[in-house]
Amino acid sequence: MPICPVKGADRNEIVYAVKVGDTLSKIAAAQLGNSQRYTEIETRNNLPNPNLIQVGQKLVVPKN
Q1: Cβ contacts of residue 2 below 8 Å, gap of 6+?
Q2: How far is residue 48's CA from residue 20's CA, in Å, rounded to a whole number?
Q3: Among 9, 12, 13, 30, which is least packed by CB within 10 angstroms?
């Protein structure tokens, strides 16, 4: 799966490295306090399919 380019994180964001077993919903729940906020991560990272993320992939996530 090609990884779409994303601009670097700004001061209101963090860079998160995807771990084994992660989903965008799990990341959103852990980092943003609400699994339904996964769309913010999807949009920010230009992900064509939110169900296809790879271990080690770096995602920019808003700070909660």
Answers
A1: none
A2: 20
A3: 12
Q: Which two tokens stand for residue 6?
A: 């994303």
DSSP calls for 5-64: P-PPP-TTEEEEE--TT--HHHHHHHHHS-GGGHHHHHHHTT-S-TT---TT-EEEEE--
Instruction: Determine the distance from the C-alpha atom of residue 12 to the mean position of all C-alpha atoms in its chain, rounded to a whole number.
Output: 14
45: its two tokens = 């990272």
- All domains in the chain, ordered by first residue: 13-62 (3.10.350.10)
Claim: this prediction has a pTM higher than 0.90: no
- Encode pLDDT of 5-62 as tens digits: 556 778 889 999 999 999 999 999 999 999 999 999 999 999 999 999 999 999 999 9
